[in-house]
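Please go through this chain and its backbone structure tokens and walk me through the local backbone shapes. Keep your notes short.
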Amino acid sequence: MCVVIYSVTALMLAFGYAVLLSMLTDVPLSSLVVSVAPGGIAEMAITAKVLQLGVPLVTAFQVSRMVGVVLMTGPLYSHVVKRLESRT
């Protein structure tokens, strides 16, 4: 059940972010939805190509997301471990 809740929440947040970006830019909502959707870079690029959306845009968003995840995982883990150690 937790996986379902997490997946639905992630998709809703991604869609909300896509709508916000669409209002602030001239980029079509359909391209932005695929760009910010949680998933692999290859899968999202193929989806964009099949749907005739902006493949370079989707790929750039997905790569940026992956870089962010890679760069933030270590510091976030260290922060959580420090907080847990301070509780004991």
Q: What stands out?
A: DSSP finds four helices and no strands in the chain.
